From TrEMBL:
Pfam families: ABC_transp_aux (PF09822), DUF7088 (PF23357). The lineage of its organism: Bacteria, Pseudomonadati, Bacteroidota, Cytophagia, Cytophagales. Residues 190-488 form the ABC-type uncharacterised transport system domain. The keyword Membrane applies. Keywords: Membrane, Transmembrane, Transmembrane helix. The chain crosses the membrane at residues 6-27, 525-545. This is Gliding motility-associated ABC transporter substrate-binding protein GldG.
C-alpha cells in the first residue's frame, strides 16, 4: 500500500511540475517533413510585436470538396499557430456565408461581403454517388485591427497549373497572405520608397494603382533626380520606364545610392517604340546612358525585342462581314505572357505576367554579386535586333514554330551583394564629391527588368480612371504584374523577412486511383475489422500473460 501511494504521489508531482513549466515555457515540435507547422522567422517577429488585438474572419468553410477542405484545414492550422504565438492577442472565426437558412438574411450578408470586395467563386464538384453539385464558395478572409479591415484572397496560384496544383499553391501561400495582411494593418513606421520620375514621360495616372498599393506599406516620394543633391534618406528607389539619357550627375547619384546599400528596381526598355502602325514601325535602340553603370553592376539590357509564341491578344480588323468590320482577337507575339519563373520567393507560385515590347537581359561577371533569375520567356522565342520592324499586321500571319528557336530568354533578375562603383579611380582628391565617395561599401540589392511597361497600368479613357495593374482590357484577365512588383519591393525593403514565408513547400502525395478502385473492399475491411482484431489480440495476450504469472 505504501509503495502504491509513493508511486501515485510521484506521478502526481511530475504532472504538477510539468504543468507549471508549461505555463512559463512554450514549445511545439513539428514532425512533418516539409516543416508544415513551422512559421517563418519574419512571421514570428511580426506576431510577437502585436500591440493590440487582431481578429480574422474566414469565409471558406462548410460543405466543401476534399481539395478545398485541405485548404480550409491549412488555414485553420495556420491561424492556430498564429494564436499560439500571440498569447490570445489574435482570434479567428470560420463563417459559412451560405449556411443561413433564412434566404433574406443570407442574401443581405452575401451582399455585404460583395461590397467589401469578397467576390464568390462558383464551384462545380462531384459529391457522393457521383452527383454533380454546384455551390458558391468564398475563398476569402477579413483581417481586423483597431477598427480597420483588410480582405485577403486565400485562393491563389498559377492558372496554367491543374486545379489540384493551384490548391496546393494556395496552401503554400496561406501563411504569407495572412501575415502580409497583418503587416499592412499594423505597420507603424513606414520606410521611404522613392519613384524617380525625372526621365520618364509616363503620366502619374498610369502608375497610380501600383503606388496606391505600395502606400499601404511604404511612404512614397516622387523624386526629381536633377533637383536632388543625393538620394540620402531613401530606403528604396524605383526607376520606371525611363525614355531619355541620364545626365552624368544623376547617374553618379544612382551609383552611390546602390554602393551605399540602397535597394533599387529598374524597369527599362532596350528599344524605343514611339507608335505602331498597321504596316509597321521600326523600333530604334534606346540610349539611357546607363549601359556602363549596368555593366559594372553585372548585367546588360540588350537593344532587341522578343517575339514569343506564348503571348497576349490584340483586336484587329481582319476584313468586313457584310457592311461591318470583322474585328477579332489575334495573338501578337510582341506582347509575351511570362509564365517561366526562377527559384525565388519573389516569384514563387506567381500567376502569369503580361509584358509588352520586352527586350532580353544578359548577366556579366561582377565579383561578389549573386544573381538570381526571376522572369524568363518561353522556349519558343525569336529575337529581333534593332532596328526592329513592329507591325500590327504581323498578328494576321501564321507563325512558323521552327523559326522561334532562340530558346528561353532572361527578362528580370535579382542581384545581391557588394556592388563596385563605376567611378572608382575617377574621383580626384580635389573633387567636391571626394569627401562622401564610396567605391564599395555595404551590401545592396537590385531588381532589373527589361520591360518598362510591366509596372504601368492601362486607363479607362471613358471614365478617366485607372485599370488595375496587370489588367488586360481585351481578354479582361488580370495578370500578376502587381504581385510581382510588390513582392520584389517587399523582398528588398522588408527587414522582417515575411516574404520568406513564400518559400514554404507542401509536397503533393496523391493516392494511386487505379489501385484504390481495385482494392477498395480490401482497404475498407482492413480499416473496419483491423482495429477490432488488434484490440482482441492484445486482450488475449494480456490474459495469457496474467495466467502465467498468477496461476
Amino acid at each position: 500500500m505504501k509503495s502504491f501511494l509513493f508511486r501515485f504521489g510521484l506521478v502526481l508531482a511530475v504532472l504538477v511540475v510539468v504543468n507549471l513549466l508549461s505555463s512559463f515555457l512554450f514549445f511545439r515540435v513539428d514532425l512533418t517533413q516539409e516543416g508544415r507547422y513551422t512559421l517563418s522567422e519574419g512571421t514570428e517577429n511580426l506576431l510577437a510585436n502585436l500591440d493590440d488585438d487582431v481578429h480574422v474572419n474566414v469565409y471558406l468553410t462548410g460543405n466543401l470538396p476534399p481539395g478545398f477542405k485541405r485548404l480550409e484545414t491549412s488555414i485553420r492550422e495556420t491561424l492556430a499557430e498564429f494564436q499560439a504565438r500571440t498569447s490570445q492577442t489574435l482570434t479567428y472565426r470560420f463563417i459559412d456565408p451560405t449556411a443561413n437558412p433564412n434566404e433574406k438574411q443570407r442574401t443581405e450578408f452575401q451582399t455585404q461581403l460583395l461590397q467589401k470586395g469578397l467576390t464568390p467563386t462558383n464551384l462545380n464538384f462531384s459529391s457522393e454517388g457521383s452527383q454533380r453539385t454546384e455551390r458558391l464558395i468564398y475563398p476569402w478572409a477579413i483581417v481586423s485591427y483597431k477598427g480597420r479591415e483588410l480582405p485577403v484572397l486565400l485562393l491563389r496560384g498559377n492558372r496554367s497549373s491543374s486545379s489540384e496544383e493551384q490548391l496546393n499553391q494556395s496552401i503554400e501561400n496561406v501563411e504569407y497572405e495572412l501575415a502580409s495582411a497583418i503587416r499592412r494593418l499594423t505597420v507603424r513606421e513606414k520606410k521611404v520608397l522613392g519613384v524617380a520620375v525625372t526621365y520618364t514621360d509616363v503620366e502619374p495616372l498610369r502608375l497610380s494603382d501600383l503606388l496606391a498599393t505600395l502606400q499601404e506599406f511604404y511612404k512614397i516620394e516622387l523624386i526629381d533626380l536633377q533637383a536632388s543633391r543625393d538620394l540620402v534618406g531613401l530606403d528604396g528607389l524605383i526607376v520606371p520606364k525611363p525614355d531619355r539619357p541620364f545626365s552624368e550627375a544623376d547617374k553618379y547619384k544612382l551609383d552611390q545610392f546602390v554602393v551605399n546599400g540602397g535597394r533599387a528596381l529598374f524597369f527599362v526598355d532596350g528599344l524605343k517604340i514611339d507608335s505602331v502602325g498597321r504596316e509597321g514601325t521600326y523600333a530604334q535602340p534606346l540610349d539611357l546612358n546607363l549601359n556602363d553603370l549596368f555593366f559594372r553592376w553585372g548585367f546588360r539590357v540588350n537593344n532587341d525585342i522578343i517575339k514569343d509564341l506564348s503571348c497576349a491578344f490584340i483586336p484587329l480588323n481582319v476584313g468586313n462581314m457584310g457592311d461591318k468590320p470583322n474585328v477579332q482577337l489575334l495573338p501578337w507575339r510582341f506582347f509575351p505572357l511570362i509564365n517561366n519563373f526562377g527559384n525565388s520567393p519573389i516569384v514563387r507560385n506567381l500567376d502569369a505576367i503580361y509584358s509588352r515590347f520586352t527586350s532580353t537581359l544578359d548577366t556579366v561577371q561582377a565579383p561578389g554579386i549573386v544573381k538570381t533569375p526571376l522572369l524568363m520567356s518561353s522556349q519558343y522565342t525569336k529575337i529581333l535586333k534593332a532596328p526592329a520592324l513592329v507591325s500590327y499586321n504581323e498578328a494576321r500571319q501564321q507563325p512558323d514554330p521552327r523559326t522561334y528557336d532562340s530558346g528561353v530568354q532572361l527578362i528580370a533578375c535579382l542581384l545581391e551583394g557588394r556592388f563596385q562603383s563605376l567611378y572608382t579611380n575617377r574621383i580626384l582628391p580635389g573633387d567636391p564629391r571626394a569627401a562622401t565617395f564610396k567605391a564599395q561599401n555595404q551590401d545592396a540589392k537590385i531588381v532589373i527588368c527589361s520591360d518598362g511597361d510591366l509596372l504601368i497600368n492601362d486607363i479607362n479613357y471613358r471614365t478617366n480612371t485607372p485599370y488595375p495593374l496587370g489588367y488586360e482590357r481585351f481578354s479582361k484577365n488580370t495578370f500578376a504584374n502587381k504581385d510581382f512588383v510588390v513582392n520584389a519591393v517587399n523582398y528588398l525593403l522588408d527587414d522582417n523577412g515575411i516574404i520568406t514565408a513564400r518559400t514554404r513547400q507542401v509536397t503533393l502525395r496523391p493516392l494511386d486511383k487505379i489501385r484504390l478502385r481495385e482494392d477498395r473492399l480490401s482497404w475498407q475491411l482492413l480499416n473496419l475489422v483491423g482495429p477490432v482484431v488488434l484490440i482482441g489480440f492484445v486482450g488475449v495476450a494480456w490474459q495469457f500473460a496474467r495466467r502465467r504469472k498468477y496461476a
